[in-house]
Write a structure and sequence with these properties.
Layout lengths: L2 H52 L9 H7 L6 H8 L4 E2 L8 E6 L5 E7 L2 E8 L7
Antiparallel strand pairs: 1-2, 2-3, 3-4
Helix pairs in contact: 1-3
């Protein structure tokens, strides 16, 4: 189980309890308003990222080499989509773990990214061999 599945809701309940102790129903209303604002900020950020990604071809990136240099273990899929400004082309079976996505650039180089539980664990840059060498 993921720690964040329990920590965020538990933190919200603790904040609501502290709001109740500090000001009764008015304190709960202030804390609830703050939590709703926090959720709306995250929702707006996610929608902005997905709107930008919807205007690009699936699995396309400007430079696979630059993407490879910017990737770090533990990044979420949303963070990678933010870097590429495009949705990745799903290479694994739908809803199967691990998830494998591919981003390709104009030189036919690509980066395969493997996600376990929504977190980036491995990635591989593949560059085509030069036929003149």
């Amino acid at each position: 189980m993921n720690f964040q599945q329990f920590s965020v809701p538990a933190g919200c309940v603790v904040l609501l309890g502290l709001g109740w102790q500090a000001g009764g129903w008015q304190g709960v209303a202030v804390v609830a308003g703050g939590l709703v604002m926090w959720l709306l900020l995250h929702f707006t950020r996610l929608m902005t990222i997905l709107k930008r990604a919807a205007n690009r071809p699936i699995g396309h990136v400007d430079s696979a080499v630059m993407l490879n240099a910017q990737l770090q273990p533990g990044m979420t899929l949303v963070q990678v989509i933010t870097l590429t400004r495009a949705l990745g082309a799903l290479q694994s079976a739908k809803d199967a773990q691990p998830e494998l996505f591919r981003w390709t650039d104009n030189s036919n180089s690509w980066v395969n990214c493997e996600f376990h539980g929504g977190k980036l664990t491995h990635w591989l840059l593949v560059r085509p061999s030069d036929p003149q060498s």
